[in-house]
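Hey L., structure's done. Input below.
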Amino acid sequence: MTVRSCGFESRPRYHDTILSLACYEQEINNFSRDLDSYNEQLAALDERQNALDANESALRDKNKRMLSAAEAQYGSDSSEYEQTGGTRLTERKRTARKAPGTGGTNTKA
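Output:
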């Protein structure tokens, strides 16, 4: 019995079945059961999410290793390396260097 329902015991009895103490306690128990079930399912999903995260991390590591193996075997500018997901050296975009003194400041007088 909850604290709130204990307070209602000392009150005059309601004759309406919707507002009866037994009905009220039943709704509280139903809600509590549903909440417990929800929390159990949420905990199970959290556990499953952790397992998926661990699997994803292991797969990411394996992917890096497979790409490195293809690069070592065929070279970093080979079509085989590109087919495994790498970017060929000749296809990499080169960044242009800015000349000294051409920073982003505006020096208008």
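The mean pLDDT is 85. The two ends are 80 Å apart (CA to CA).

-- N.
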